[in-house]
Predict the 3D structure of the following.
Amino acid sequence: MAKNKIETEEILKASYRVELFIRKFEKQIQTALIYEPSDSIRQDIQVLNEFVKNQKMLIEDARKSLSGNYDYKGNYLDTEIVSTPLSTRTSLCLKSADIKTVKDLIEAKNKYGLSHFKNFRNFGKTAYDEVVRFINIVESL
């Protein structure tokens, strides 16, 4: 039991460090908007801003989950693949295979099995191993 408490405390500490980084990043985004950027840069800034908002929600969800009063798995299933901790290459491979959310990933695994992912274009052993680990973590929530 003590090990779980220590792990929970470490996760919470890490979430606060990530939150501090996100807050700094959010301030930089707001500062960048002051200088009237071009339309393409403004679009990039908006994408980054959406990412930051999503990460803040994930941190809050994780904290609620650790306190034991939140259905983290149910909410996390709606998370877009690109917002998960999967690598960019893996996320893009899944996205090109029309797997947009964590729920889509779990459904594909349940419907076709894990070996189905090996058939995706540019999906190598590293990406496969990463997805298997990710699915195991999500299913254990």
